[in-house]
Amino acid sequence: MTGLPETITACLFDLDGVLTDTAVIHSQAWKQTFDEFLRARDGDEYREFTDQDYATYVDGRPRADGVREFLRSRGIELPEGTPDDAPDAPTVNGVGNRKNELVLKIIDERGVNPYPGSIRYLDAVKAAGLRIAVVTSSANGAKVLDAGGLSKYVEARVDGLTIRERNLKGKPAPDSFLAGAAALGVEPAHAAVFEDAQSGVQAGKAGGFGYVVGVNRADQADQLRAHGADIVVDDLADLLED
Ligand SMILES: O=P(O)(O)OC[C@H]1O[C@@H](O)[C@H](O)[C@@H](O)[C@@H]1O
């Protein structure tokens, strides 16, 4: 009915790119932010931020981790700063906050759309009596769930703010998913993880979760399998057809 093993009693959903179409907002905002940063630093000959950079260093990770990992890949180190740094501060947090200004602007302009297949799947999961948590690295998790009309499905939420407050390790570490399972009172072996990011399926695998579903929104099915997905689907509704 839900396409999951019978041992699964809870679903831990990533948000951006799994339930809502907001992954593309993040990737666009990161590209603009990093390209402007690199151009200001290296001039017009700068090496641009690519889709590959996004998938490898940024996708699925908490904001500051994404900045730090990508800049390190280019041999650039900035001071950390603090989460309330101004968007023009020359710090890891400042660069992240610049990107967040763009994200909030795009969300305000175009809104948040849940994938129709994801809504069908959430309804099926609920009807089957499975527990539901959202585990996202985004500090905008509550806003995106509300804007997409999805809050009513969610029994527990672990987001970028929770991660910061509790000093959890971000994806690809399993800690945020383990916190999601704990919030539902479910053992990892009985929870399924749903992820569109390589770092996210890696976190699911590392946490010993009962089933890891890779959601292929960016033509990276092989990479999702290689990073730990037990199954890869193009849309959550594909699971309902099994
Ligand atoms: O900057 P935010 O909204 O806190 O989001 C952090 C990360 O959240 C993840 O959900 C996205 O996949 C990343 O692209 C994003 O960088």
UniProtKB/TrEMBL annotation:
It catalyses: beta-D-glucose 1-phosphate = beta-D-glucose 6-phosphate. Its EC number is 5.4.2.6. It is an enzyme of class 5 (isomerase). InterPro entries: B-phosphoglucomutase_hydrolase, Beta-PGM-like, HAD-like_sf, HAD-SF_hydro_IA, HAD_sf, PGP-like_dom2. Keywords: Carbohydrate metabolism, Hydrolase, Isomerase, Magnesium, Metal-binding, Phosphoprotein. GO terms for molecular function: beta-phosphoglucomutase activity; hydrolase activity; metal ion binding. Coiled coil: none annotated. Belongs to the HAD-like hydrolase superfamily. CbbY/CbbZ/Gph/YieH family. NCBIfam families: HAD-SF-IA-v3, PGMB-YQAB-SF. This is Beta-phosphoglucomutase. The lineage of its organism: Bacteria, Bacillati, Actinomycetota, Actinomycetes, Pseudonocardiales.
